[in-house]
Write a structure and sequence with these properties.
CATH architecture of chain A: Orthogonal Bundle
Largest interface: A-B, 41 and 41 residues
Oligomer: homodimer
Distance between the termini of chain A: 36 Å
Structural class of chain A: alpha+beta
CATH topology of chain A: Arc Repressor Mutant, subunit A
Number of strands of chain A: 6
Radius of gyration of chain A: 18 Å
CATH superfamily of chain A: Winged helix-like DNA-binding domain superfamily/Winged helix DNA-binding domain
Number of domains of chain A: 1
Strand content of chain A: 15-25%
Number of helices of chain A: 5
CATH class of chain A: Mainly Alpha
Largest sheet of chain A: 4 strands, mixed
Helix content of chain A: 25-40%
DNA sequence: GTCACTGCAAAAGGTTTGCAACGGA
DNA sequence: TCCGTTGCAAACCTTTTGCAGTGAC
């Protein structure tokens, strides 16, 4: 059998799985599951496209007694650090967050509607080996994002 | 002969070539080559690692009658838009600029000293075809950056 | 009861903008 | 001379921080 690269696996984040996962990791870490944080998680789950910290803060503000700005920023930082949020860079140079799962993922971003699909398996091994040999770098990681038009927008 | 992916080609930006290229493209575009802009180009050529707009402004300030902040920001935006600067995203989530040439490049970034090597040829065709089929996206472009330790730092 | 978390409000950064004066081509 | 460019200073937007009060466990 020829040496075929593995097919990439697309990954979809299930809202309940994600929220339970976050809460579980908070428990494990000794962090507390508070009302404001729960609201942040719910709000994040309502996005279909990447969001910014300020946007999340603004959207949360529509309800009564919303979390403060500091709480929103601190929660995002926390989730992002633990891998529950992934950072997306748009072609226009903006950046935002999307729900993710701890681990190594790449993202395919629709340049029109902003929809994001995560996937694993980037088949870069060959490139990494060649580049390492050519540049004498010891390669440790990478960032890969693809841009295009989704089925609905193209 | 087997269907081998092409080796990546590393690319080095020559300071004189770069400055002449920028000036030529300004002429072509009907933009003017002014004293403040020339200073910005010179300052950019002195960096060995990615720089930010504010950092460039600060560094230019050390000389007499430095360009104003607005000029620095506007020049960077211009160069970046024309492909003479490439945006680098560090693993830590920061971003900066490095001199580049118009065209499609990827970057290998040293996570210790910040040194950057540009290269072309990422051998992603196979992945793109598979993902396009799997997701029904029409893929238009991509962002690829590699992180590692350079020969000197490893 | 303890200690992590919250909200506020201020500070700190970074980036953009309007406009009158300036100076390349 | 013409018109793109500059510099200033203010406005704007995003993110961070200190601290006293609050509430999860």
């Amino acid at each position: 059998m020829p040496n075929r690269p593995p097919s990439p696996d697309t990954v979809r984040v299930n809202p309940d799985t994600w929220k339970h996962g976050v809460r579980a990791s908070w428990h494990t870490a000794g962090s507390r599951v508070t009302e404001p944080r729960a609201r942040v998680l719910d709000a994040i789950m309502r996005y279909q496209t990447p969001f910014s910290a300020e946007q999340l803060y603004a959207d949360l503000g529509h309800a009564a007694s919303p979390p403060g700005r500091a709480t929103v920023y601190r929660t995002i930082e926390q989730l992002s650090g633990a891998g529950w949020l992934a950072r997306i860079h748009t072609q226009a140079g903006e950046s935002g967050y999307v729900p993710s799962l701890p681990g190594h993922f790449h993202h395919l971003v629709c340049t029109r509607c902003g929809a994001v699909i995560a996937f694993q398996g980037c088949a870069l091994d060959d490139l990494l080996i060649r580049l390492a040999a050519q540049t004498d770098f010891e390669i440790e990681g990478h960032l890969l994002q693809l841009y295009g038009r989704c089925a609905h927008c193209k």
